[in-house]
Specification:
Elements: E1 6-8, H1 12-34, H2 43-65, E2 67-70, E3 74-79, E4 82-87, E5 91-95, E6 104-107, E7 112-114, H3 124-141
Antiparallel strand pairs: 1-2, 2-3, 3-4, 5-6, 6-7
Length: 142
């Protein structure tokens, strides 16, 4: 059973998520300061705009913090704000079809867990990550 731990995080997707968050904050401040003085937002409008910005930033942070970790116990996937801990004995296999946005972990119960921490847009690195997961599964079940 593989004992060493390895973690994968999205590359370009992570950079884009946090960059978009920074751009949204900067645009909100710049536009807010550039508005004429005769435009006044009521408290309810300010709260609504703040909530929209906060929810958007939380969603972007969820994408950016996604990760997949494989260790001696199994695979641990953090997809946004949801954690999946799957033991090696419960894993049937992994799949990542051509053009898929991310790989899928298939359990022995035929449940599927998307592995957002490995992004298909990362190209060969994503394929290498899936190959490594499959290799570790083979070691764990041998």
């Amino acid at each position: 059973m593989p004992e060493d731990s390895i973690t994968w995080r999205p590359g370009g997707t992570r950079v884009v998520a946090y960059a978009v968050g920074v751009v949204l904050i900067v645009l909100t401040v710049v536009i807010g300061l550039a508005l004429p003085d005769d435009i006044v937002f009521h408290l309810s409008e300010r709260i609504t705009l703040g909530l929209i910005l906060a929810v958007t930033l939380l969603g972007l942070h969820g994408v950016g913090r996604s990760k997949v970790t494989a260790d001696g116990a199994g695979v641990h996937a953090l997809n946004g704000y949801r954690v999946h801990d799957i033991a090696w004995a419960d894993i049937k296999g992994f799949s990542m079809n051509t053009g898929a946005p991310w790989p899928t972990l298939v359990t022995r119960d035929d449940d599927r867990v998307m592995l957002f921490g490995i992004q298909g847009s990362d190209g060969p690195a994503a394929r290498a990550a899936v190959d490594e997961l499959a290799r570790r599964l083979g070691e764990a079940t041998a």
